Amino acid sequence: MPELTTLTTASGLRFSAWVEGPADGPLVLLLHGYPQSRHAWRAQLPALAAAGYCAVAPDQRGYSPGARPDPADLANYAVEHLVADAVELAAACGHGSRRFHLVGHDWGGQVAWRVAAAHPARLASLAILSRPHPTAFLRALEAPDGDQAHRSRHHKAFLDPDTGKLLLENDATRLRRGLGEAGVPPDAVQFYVSVLGDPAAMEAALAWYRAAGGLRTAIGAVTVPTLYIWGDADSTVGRAAAEGTAACVSAPYRFAVLPGIGHFVTDQVPEQVNALLLDHLKANPA
Fold this sequence. Notes:
CATH topology: Rossmann fold
Structural class: alpha/beta
CATH class: Alpha Beta
Radius of gyration: 17 Å
Largest sheet: 8 strands, mixed
CATH superfamily: Alpha/Beta hydrolase fold, catalytic domain
Strand content: 15-25%
Mean pLDDT: 96
Low-confidence stretches: none
Distance between the termini: 27 Å
Oligomer: single chain
Order of helices and strands: EEEHEHEHEHHHHHHEHEHH
């Protein structure tokens, strides 16, 4: 595993991060989702570094002890702060005025879509894993068939103030079981629990969902070259939202479907993810 380092942003937050690859290489910033951590990218960092990229995988706001404003104040976890974190992290890596590649999975993908919409000139490329474009997701969520609403029913549980405690009781039994049933191998589950097993980190992670508007607001079309990777066995994202994403990108776009693969694609098929990412980055140099 890479050595853990600290990246301090202009806002004064200190993010725990893995950094691998040449410091002067093109930056690839990788944003994890819930309930994961920087460990989600453990197979991508060495592959990116070997290809000459500077790969950076932070534990995001609330997951990093030094970047954990009080989750009781949900304003601290509003999506605009999450977007600003990504831009400031790139600057902390020496890319304040240079374009960079942005990769996001799950909630990290939700943030990445919004970075691309708000700061398209900053990005050389965008790669999203498992999370559809916010507008496509919202359309699917409101569809009369109720399929996506059913798939997203767990979001309501995250609003309950007792959820964090329930997930972590008895050595995080519920959290471990949920990840394992989704196809995450035991060693990876342990990595994620090493971060989210801290009750303070769990409450901050859940604050992302509790902050108003995080998952239910549309955005405009993305104008950055985009790769979208979706496993067709993803229990949380249906085909309507996934296929609807194409209409929300007005730039070169590739939709890569992974047959039989679920939500946690970097844990299930890391080599396939690496190949897709490297092809995408090569096609869209910074």
